[in-house]
């Protein structure tokens, strides 16, 4: 077997607590499908037959019991539960399943919605025998108004600085703005080997990583690394150019250093494979070099290599903020071919449903309603004379007559009273909006949720 | 059939064996006579040995005419032929050679194809068993006719018949059967070369495969990718990488129940080889390596345990690499260094791992010489050769091939590497090599070709059109000052980009071929091939 897929679905959605306090993030509906369906569909389309899904007990329960959450995937899902309150990072989760990992892994996050050609990422991983291969995309500006947002959006929050070489494939430098004190510091060894580096800031990390099995074993030994994105990836990128990985005498040093438990050396002995000499002979006889202009061999003799595939066009979203969630809902219909109006929905004759709206199963849409650019969830009731524009209505919502909902997100099981006028609001789960209410740009959530402090 | 009895036998047999030993092609009558003789011999043997199962023998002779003459049959025939004399069970091995089917095939539909196959297999087993204890005398005599009779049913390989839709359809069907995606051709092909495949590097074969590749072993997928992207390039490097991948395949292989390792593993390797062929056409050295491995696998005795068989195969592969590549390089360097004298100016073309090896060794042995590296677009492999030579401390000059006649008056010797040496003495090498040889000949500069024997190939070619490789035409595009002139070459209907990879150099331009067997003239290549075939 070549690759094992691991889907990280235990995240809490900390940046959109308003949405996720009742529904766990992997099960948030996007285009009337649970969020976790999108990466699973991506893996299935590419040809995976089984996936290890790391998730919480709550999610597992909901997947198996709740009829609304139908995953519709033919793959075999191996659900691994971790405690919610254990505060495990993604790397901790990988360490948790180290026993199940038999080959190289493809780690995907549950909030990734993309139509990328995965073979580009995996081809980089295969062809260059890389330790890490990841996917990034050019970030798109979110144009939709985000409900409940007061004031301008803070720009420049936590940018990522990504340095790639001339071909745009080899990853040379990765740092987050938060980790840099004053400026971007680049080591001279990197500049000597790659004099031309392109540093990009407008990239979205898709959180899709191909990792060698030796990295998972390395994680098992080094318990200090807890997050893949935050700690492991920058560590690997830095390690490409560190002196100990390039010296050929590493194997001798390991015997001396075993007692010291040097983490650097451990990674290296794990990376070297059998038949190293044949591979070395091949490289020696082959006339290929990845760079030119200096006297060193291909890859500068380094054995640890990190690659990135940067998508220029195509959809790639990480649904971890409210703005991304809204944007994803707009674009989700393009990713699958199901009809916009579910066949089991009862839609009356005299309502106006725009072409880019999605109506979920078992809905009841009454007369004289107008639904434009919106998503209506499963089992939602919409009474007469309701205007829904640019909104996301989740499951089980009841919208009484004469309401006007614009640019809002209404969470599941909410009830909007008659004649209410909701503009750019976020109505939390199971909330009731009293009739004839007028709310603009507010976040309406229950009092129990406010007790987060 | 029984008419050509005893009187024909001994006299003509001598004639035929004589002509075989001289290497002449057998004429049609001679072949027919040989066939009849063999049949007659067998019949006599049968009459002597077994009176009992004469019905089965009668059954078998008409039935064996049922399988139509296929190329498969000719391959089975060699294994059946070697011991016609010693087989206790009647082996009507000359049956597959019947071009005119005998009258009785139609009235034996009772025997199903599976039974026939089982019978044939049983026969082959007994042949193989009987072969071991020393039917060597008859073996040798009949082995020589084997290698000469094989070329009877020869087919053009599929990769040089791309403009024939029937062949393309057949290839597509074969790939579908093996569950390998078909790679589609790209761009307009120049009409002279429209019979060859032309692929684009931007459309790798992996986008049609499932990502955790289950049909094809992951190391083969990796190898195919590395071939198509040019990460592993060069005849020696490709062969070593191929054998390395095969080692991993063998390590991960488990014999399914009711199957034999010797047969099943060869069948497992076939789709992998097709896949690699789709990624990049196989080189002659790779072809020879594959033939060797297949032979080794099929020679594994059936009672051998799996673990033992696997370790045996792995050591075989290691030995092959060690002997044919590493030690051969050492031997060639030893011979070549004799030819390098102090004060020499040596011209090399492109990157040849062997020539580089020779020059580095010569430099170690403190010969004083300087090197001129000639390079050509679009591959510009000479830069890598230049880098490795300069890294050792050899003083080099670098020119492009357009400056060849300018630089040749300074040159005292030309060392060329080869991709393959063909059976008529032609040298197949990187495109541009024949130019270098031609110009060197006009300047009376000696041209020495260095080539290991495992790259010797039984093909015969006199021009570079018949069989070649077309690389990605987009490689010819170059961007200068931000402008790519050929960017929209596909829109111009009368423009075709041709990116050839190989060309053939006639033996008249080559003065010496340095192989691990010694220094031979170019015309002695067929002798080496024949000696090699006899050994095997």
UniProtKB/TrEMBL annotation, chain A:
PANTHER family for the chain: TRANSLATION INITIATION FACTOR EIF-2B SUBUNIT GAMMA
Segments crossing the lipid bilayer: none
Signal peptide: none
Any one annotated GO CC term: eukaryotic translation initiation factor 2B complex
Name the UniProt record assigns to this protein: Translation initiation factor eIF2B subunit gamma
Organism in which the protein naturally occurs: Oncorhynchus kisutch
GO BP terms: central nervous system development; cytoplasmic translational initiation
EIF2B subunit epsilon/gamma LbH domain: residues covered: 344-436
GO molecular function terms attached to this record: guanyl-nucleotide exchange factor activity; translation initiation factor activity
Subcellular location: Cytoplasm, Cytosol
Domain of life according to the entry: Eukaryota
Summary of subunit composition and partner proteins: Component of the translation initiation factor 2B (eIF2B) complex which is a heterodecamer of two sets of five different subunits: alpha, beta, gamma, delta and epsilon. Subunits alpha, beta and delta comprise a regulatory subcomplex and subunits epsilon and gamma comprise a catalytic subcomplex. Within the complex, the hexameric regulatory complex resides at the center, with the two heterodimeric catalytic subcomplexes bound on opposite sides.
Keywords, in A-Z order: Acetylation, Cytoplasm, Initiation factor, Phosphoprotein, Protein biosynthesis
A Pfam match: LbH_EIF2B
Protein family membership: Belongs to the eIF-2B gamma/epsilon subunits family.
Principal subcellular localisation of the protein: cytoplasm
UniProtKB/TrEMBL annotation, chain B:
Subcellular location(s) per record: Cytoplasm, Cytosol
Gene Ontology MF: a single term: guanyl-nucleotide exchange factor activity
Composition bias, Low complexity: 94-107
Stretches for region Disordered: 1-146
InterPro entries noted in UniProt: IF-2B-related, IF_2B-like_C, NagB/RpiA_transferase-like
Keyword Nucleotide-binding set for record: no
Alphabetized UniProt keyword annotations: Cytoplasm, Initiation factor, Protein biosynthesis
Subunit structure: Component of the translation initiation factor 2B (eIF2B) complex which is a heterodecamer of two sets of five different subunits: alpha, beta, gamma, delta and epsilon. Subunits alpha, beta and delta comprise a regulatory subcomplex and subunits epsilon and gamma comprise a catalytic subcomplex. Within the complex, the hexameric regulatory complex resides at the center, with the two heterodimeric catalytic subcomplexes bound on opposite sides.
Annotated Basic and acidic residues bias: 11-32, 47-61, 108-130
Biased composition (Basic residues): 33-46
Domain of life: Eukaryota
Major place of residence: cytoplasm
Native organism: Oncorhynchus kisutch
Keyword match Iron: no
Protein name, per record: Translation initiation factor eIF2B subunit delta
Family of this protein: Belongs to the eIF-2B alpha/beta/delta subunits family.
């Amino acid at each position: 077997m070549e690759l094992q897929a691991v889907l990280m679905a235990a995240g809490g959605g900390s940046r959109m607590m308003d949405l996720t306090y009742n529904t766990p993030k992997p099960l948030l509906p996007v285009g009337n499908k649970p969020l976790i369906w999108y990466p699973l569909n991506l893996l299935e389309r590419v040809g995976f037959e089984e996936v290890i899904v790391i998730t919480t007990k709550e999610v597992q329960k909901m997947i198996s019991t709740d009829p609304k959450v139908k995953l519709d995937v033919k793959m075999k899902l191996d659900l691994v539960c971790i405690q919610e309150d254990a505060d495990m990072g993604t790397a901790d989760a990988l360490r948790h399943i180290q026993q199940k990992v038999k080959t190289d892994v493809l780690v995907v996050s549950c909030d990734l919605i993309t139509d990328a050609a995965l073979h580009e990422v995996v081809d980089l991983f295969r062809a260059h025998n890389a330790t890490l291969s990841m996917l990034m995309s050019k970030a798109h500006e979110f144009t939709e108004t985000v409900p409940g947002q007061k004031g301008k959006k803070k720009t420049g929050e936590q940018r990522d600085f990504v340095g790639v070489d001339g071909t745009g494939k080899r990853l040379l430098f990765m740092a987050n703005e938060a980790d840099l004190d004053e400026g971007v510091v680049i080591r001279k060894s990197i500049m000597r080997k790659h004099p031309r580096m392109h540093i990009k800031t407008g990239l979205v990390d898709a959180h899709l990583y191909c990792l060698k099995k030796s990295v998972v074993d390395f994680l098992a030994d080094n318990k200090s690394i807890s997050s893949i994105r935050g700690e492991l990836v920058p560590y690997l990128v830095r390690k490409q150019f560190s002196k100990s990985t390039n010296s050929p005498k590493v194997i001798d040093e390991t015997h001396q250093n075993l007692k010291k438990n040097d983490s650097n050396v451990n990674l290296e002995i794990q990376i070297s494979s059998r038949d190293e000499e044949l591979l070395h002979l091949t490289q020696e006889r082959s006339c290929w070099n990845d760079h030119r202009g200096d006297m060193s061999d291909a890859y500068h003799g380094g054995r640890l290599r990190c690659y990135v595939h940067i998508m220029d066009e195509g959809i790639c979203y990480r649904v971890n903020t409210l703005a991304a969630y809204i944007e994803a809902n707009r674009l989700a219909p393009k990713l699958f071919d199901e009809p916009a109006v579910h066949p089991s929905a009862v839609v009356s004759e005299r309502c106006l449903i725009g072409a880019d709206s999605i109506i979920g199963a078992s809905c009841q849409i009454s007369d004289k309603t107008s639904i434009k650019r919106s998503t209506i969830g499963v089992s939602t009731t919409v009474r007469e004379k309701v205007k829904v524009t640019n909104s996301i209505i989740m499951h089980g919502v009841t919208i009484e007559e004469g309401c006007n909902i614009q640019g809002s997100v209404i969470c599941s099981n909410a009830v909007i009273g008659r004649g209410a006028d909701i503009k750019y609001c976020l109505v939390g789960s199971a909330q009731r909006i009293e009739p004839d209410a007028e709310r603009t740009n507010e976040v309406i959530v229950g009092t129990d949720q406010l007790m987060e402090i | 059939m029984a008419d050509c009895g005893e009187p024909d036998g001994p006299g003509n047999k001598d004639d035929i064996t004589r002509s075989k030993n001289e290497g002449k092609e057998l004429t049609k009558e001679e072949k027919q006579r040989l066939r009849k003789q063999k049949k007659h011999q067998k019949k006599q043997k049968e009459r002597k040995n077994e009176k009992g199962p004469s019905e089965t023998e009668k059954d078998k002779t008409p039935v064996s005419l049922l399988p139509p003459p296929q190329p498969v049959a000719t391959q089975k025939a060699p294994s059946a032929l070697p011991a016609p004399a010693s087989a206790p069970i009647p082996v009507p091995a000359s049956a597959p050679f019947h071009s005119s089917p005998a009258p009785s095939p139609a009235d034996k539909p009772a025997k199903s194809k599976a039974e026939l196959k089982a019978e044939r297999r049983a026969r082959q087993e007994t042949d193989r068993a009987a072969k071991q204890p020393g039917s060597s005398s008859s073996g040798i005599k009949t082995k020589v006719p084997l290698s000469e009779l094989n070329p009877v049913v020869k087919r053009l390989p599929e990769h040089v018949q791309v403009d024939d839709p029937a062949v393309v359809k057949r290839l597509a069907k074969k790939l579908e059967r093996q569950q390998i995606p078909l790679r589609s051709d790209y761009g307009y092909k120049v009409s002279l070369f429209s019979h060859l495949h032309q692929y684009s590097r931007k459309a790798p074969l992996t986008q049609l495969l499932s990502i955790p590749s289950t049909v094809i072993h992951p190391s083969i997928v990796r190898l195919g990718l590395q071939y198509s992207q040019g990460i592993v390039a060069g005849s020696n490097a490709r062969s070593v990488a191929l054998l390395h991948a095969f080692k991993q395949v063998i390590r991960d292989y488990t014999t399914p129940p009711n199957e034999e390792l010797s047969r099943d593993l060869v069948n497992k390797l076939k789709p992998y080889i097709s896949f690699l062929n789709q990624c990049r056409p196989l080189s002659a050295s790779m072809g020879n390596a594959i033939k060797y491995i297949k032979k080794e696998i099929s020679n594994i005795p059936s009672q051998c345990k799996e673990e033992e068989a696997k370790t045996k195969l792995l050591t075989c592969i290691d030995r092959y690499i060690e002997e044919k590549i590493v030690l051969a390089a050492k031997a060639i360097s030893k011979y070549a260094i004799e030819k390098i004298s102090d004060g020499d100016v040596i011209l090399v073309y492109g990157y040849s791992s062997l020539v580089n090896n020779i020059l580095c060794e010569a430099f170690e042995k403190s010969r004083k010489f300087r090197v001129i590296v000639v390079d050509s677009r679009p591959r510009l492999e000479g830069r890598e050769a230049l880098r490795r030579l300069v890294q050792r401390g050899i003083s080099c000059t670098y020119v492009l091939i357009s400056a060849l006649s300018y630089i040749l008056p300074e040159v005292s010797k030309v060392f060329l590497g080869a991709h393959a040496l063909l059976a008529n003495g032609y040298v197949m090498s990187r495109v541009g090599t024949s130019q270098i040889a031609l110009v060197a000949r006009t300047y009376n500069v000696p041209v020495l070709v260095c080539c290991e024997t495992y790259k010797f190939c039984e093909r015969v070619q006199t021009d570079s059109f018949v069989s070649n490789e077309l690389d990605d035409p987009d490689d010819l595009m170059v961007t200068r000052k931000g402008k790519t002139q050929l960017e929209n070459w596909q829109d111009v209907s009368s423009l075709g980009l041709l990116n050839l990879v190989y060309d053939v150099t006639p033996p008249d331009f080559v003065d010496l071929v340095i192989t691990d067997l010694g220094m031979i003239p170019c015309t002695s290549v067929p002798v080496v091939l024949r000696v090699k075939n006899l050994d095997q």
